[in-house]
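SAMPLE LOG
Freezer: B-3
Tube label: C17
Construct: single chain, 331 aa
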Amino acid sequence: TQRTRQVRVGDCPVAAAAVTRRGSQVQLILLQYDPTWQERKEAAEQLDWEDPQPAPRTHREELFQREAVEAALPVENLEAVSFGSASYPLSGGQTGEVEQDWEALLLLAALLRAGWDMGALADCPTEGMFLSRYDWREAFDAIPDTEGPLTLVPAQRDVSGLEAVDLTVPLGDCDPISLELPDSPAVYVTGASLHDPWKQLEETFSHPKILAQFTPEDLAKRRADLENLWTERCPRGMAYPVVCYEAERDVSIQCYAKSWLDEPLPQPENGIQNGFCVMLWDRDAPLGPHGWPMKQAVLSDVPVPLESREAIQVGAVRWHRREAVAPLVLE
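STRUCTURE (predicted):
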């Protein structure tokens, strides 16, 4: 379909270029322009030239190294598109810079040859122009009716930040410690505990629902796989430190131990290291003193002896917040 549907979000024009079908696979094609892309990319390249970053030697240096420049696009991570009252779920979008993605460039050229009118995007340079492709989850023998208002429905957006901290968390409960991080939502650390994955393994494989769901052979294989994993990462007699905290329902944190941050990076042949923190929370978790759910952050990079009573030393925190994004209507 070649009817032009466009909207301008601030200085960024967005156009629904086409709905295409190959076999039974229907795809939505979007074209967007980031007016700041070229300037920001050149500034980053200049900074790398004037102040080149050495190769990171420790986890801390790797974690805090300069971030790559990313496009600032008004439409990202769509979960559905609707035409009038008909809604269609989407899956995995792919976005490429037109100048750097030859498939995107060829597709744009094909659309223009077919007579598609770029509208306001015709006045934009190709530097900073991005083409996105979203597959429709359903299979179709023909392109569905695309009349009526076109509405793009984004999934929730993850906003995050990384900060160095000097945080000592005692085992057991403690008075709430406010993590006053720049631009972050309110988070209160309420103590720490130890998580024994071997105890959890025993509880899992003795649960009646698990026993009823798998054959004895499947259970034995799955158990052996997990035992091999934990033997390598957290041998018997060891446990993972857990930071307990209170935060709004859509907020979570990752914590990085000081000892891990200062370790040298492993050689590539040594395999992938954990180097991250697993986030655990229950939608029905009890509420903390501020009325928000209690959550847990498991430091899966620094197992400690089960009998350890040492406080957890945290050297960095990454916070995450899930935010709803308003639908966008293209006329």
